[in-house]
Amino acid sequence: MDDAFSDLQLTEECWPGTDTPDPKSLYPNVYDELHHACVNIVCSSCGTIDHNPLSVHLVPIDSPLLSLLSVDPAVTKANFACGVHSLDNIHVMIDKLGLITDSNGGCQLQICSSCYCHLNRGNTPPHSLANFRWTGPVPPELIGLTWIEERLISRAHMVGMVLRLQPRGVAYGGLKGHLVLLPQDTTALLNILPIPPSSLPDTIRVVWTGKSAPDNGDLAMMFKVRTQRVYDALRWLVRNHHDYESVTLNYREFARWPPVFVADDLIHSMAQGSDVSNDDLSGTGFATEDIDVLHSHGSLPITSSAIVDVNQVSQSAVSVSLRTLASLSADATCNVVFGNSLKSDFTDPAFFTSAFPLLFPYGIGKHIDSKRKIELKLSTWVSLLLKDSSRYIALIFNSR
C-alpha cells in the first residue's frame, strides 16, 4: 500500500504530463461526451439505460425475432401489455420506454447489442425482462410509503440501520443524516404482520450529534407512521405479492395504533453526542484501502463513530430471550421462528423480494427463478437492477 500511495503521489506531481490533449479539440470533445451522457437510451428487451446511440439496434415491431420475448401472462400477477396491438397479441414483454416512433409514423424497438445478438441466434436474451426479470409497476398503495412504514410490513429484515442525524445551519432549518446499513442474520420470514413499532429498535439505531438537543417536532416528521397507509399497503401485498400469500394480518396490532403516530421507541432509544467534528473528519477524504481485496496484507485502519450490536451476538442468547419475554405484555404478538438455518442470498429466491416489497411489489423478478431459461449470477442481477429504466430506487427515495 505504501508503494501504491507513493506512485499515486508521483503521478499527481507530474500531472498533466507531456501527453496532453490538443487544446482546440478539448472543449468540443468534452461537450460531445456530456451531450451523449445526457441522453438516455433504453433497451426494450432488458430495460437498461445506455447513453451511446451506436450501441442499440432498431427492430420493427413486426419482426419475428420478437416472438422470443413472449411470456405466459399466467406467471405474472400484473399486466405487462405495452399498448402495441401486434406485440400484446403474442404477449411480448418489453420496456415501453424502448418504443420509438420513426419518421413514417410507425413504431420500432430499441434493442441493445447484447440482446440483439442473442435474438439473431434464435435465443431469448439472458438479460431480457422476458427471462423472468420483470418486477412490475409500483401500485399507488405502495408509492409514498416512508422507510419506517416499509420496515413495519417487510417479511424479513436483512439489514440493520444506524441513522446519524444532526441539525443543519440556521439558514436551512432542517435535518441532515447519514445512514449505514449492516447485514443481519435472518432465519425465517415473518408470517404475522405488521410488526409492533416497539420492535423497530431491534434493527434500527438513531444517533443525534449536535450541541443542542433535537427538536421533537422535527424528529416527529421523520419517524411518523400513517396507520391507514400501512394497512392498505399490507392488504395489497397479501393479494398480489407472491411471497405474502401466507401472511396473516394482525388486526389487533392495527387496533392499537392511532391514525397517525410517531415511532417513539426509536426516539427514546436515541443516543446523543455533542461533538460532531471527529465524526465529520472520519468521513472526509478518499478511502485508500479495500478490505475485500485478496492481496491486502497487514492490518487495515478502521474508523467508526459507533459499533452497534443490533444482532445481540455479544449477549447470552438465554438472557436476551428471558429479558424479551419478561417485557412482553398480554397484548403482544410473537412471531415464532423455528430452526437455526440462516437464509442465504445465494440459495433463497425470496431473500430480496420479501425484504424490499417496494422494489419488488409483486414478488417477481427474483435473483433465482426455476422458470428462468438461463440463470443469472447474483452480481449480474444486481447490476441490471441498478441500471433498470424504471428508476424504482429513485422513485421510492424521492417520495420519502
Q: Which short descriptors sum up this protein?
A:
400 residues, alpha/beta, four-stranded mixed sheet, three-stranded antiparallel sheet, 14% strand, globular, disordered C terminus
Q: Profile the largest sheet.
A: 4 strands, mixed
Helix percent reads 25-40%
Strand content: 5-15%
What does the radius of gyration come to? 25 Å
Model regions low in confidence, pLDDT < 50 over at least 5 residues: 285-316, 393-400
Q: Kindly report how far apart the N and C termini lie.
A: 41 Å
Number of helices: 13
What spatial form do the alpha-carbon principal axes imply? globular
For the largest beta sheet, what order do the strands appear in spatially? 7-6-9-13
Give, in order, the helices and strands.
HHEEEHEEHHEEEEHEHEHEHEHHHH
Helix-strand category: alpha/beta
Average pLDDT for all residues:
79
Q: Would you count the extended β strands for me?
A: 13
